[in-house]
Structure formats: C-alpha cells, structure tokens
Amino acid sequence: MPTDLAELSLPKALDDRLQHLLDEQGRRGRLTAAEKREAEAIAQIASTLTILKLGAQVQSINS
Q1: Long-range contacts (CB closer than 8 Å, 24 or more residues apart) made by 48-52
Q2: Which domain holds residue 42?
C-alpha cells in the first residue's frame, strides 16, 4: 500500500470490474439492481481516492 496519498489508486481488480460493468451496461442497455449497486460502490471508492489524492497534492503545494 502506498504511504503517499498522492500515489493511491483504485486496485486493478476493482478498475477491471467497473469497466466490465460499464461495458455490460452499454451492451445490454442496463444493469441488474445488484450490478448497479456494485458499480455505484466502486465509483464511490474511486471518487474518494481522487479526493484524497487532490487533497494530498494541494497540501504538498502549500507546504
């Protein structure tokens, strides 16, 4: 696990799973309720990581 917040990223397995779910949505036109919840949860994790990374970058600039 990175010790520097700026180096955090979504694990490849989660990134791959989200991409698969998005591909399925594009192919089928929709996701099941469970797939939608899963995709939303992964997207929330990705958003949280992005916010943490941006905060670390701002803190680094201001230091």
Answers
A1: 49/8, 49/9, 49/10, 52/5, 52/8
A2: 8-62
CA separation, residue 29 to residues 6, 15, 18 (Å) = 35, 20, 15
What pLDDT digit, counting tens, does each position of 7-63 carry? 788 999 999 999 999 999 999 999 999 999 999 999 999 999 999 888 888 887 887
Contact 18, 43 (CB under 8 A): yes
> Is 3 contained in some domain?
no
Q: What does pTM read for this prediction?
A: 0.83
What's CA 5's distance to the chain center, in Å? 15
**Cα separation, 6 vs 14, whole angstroms:** 19
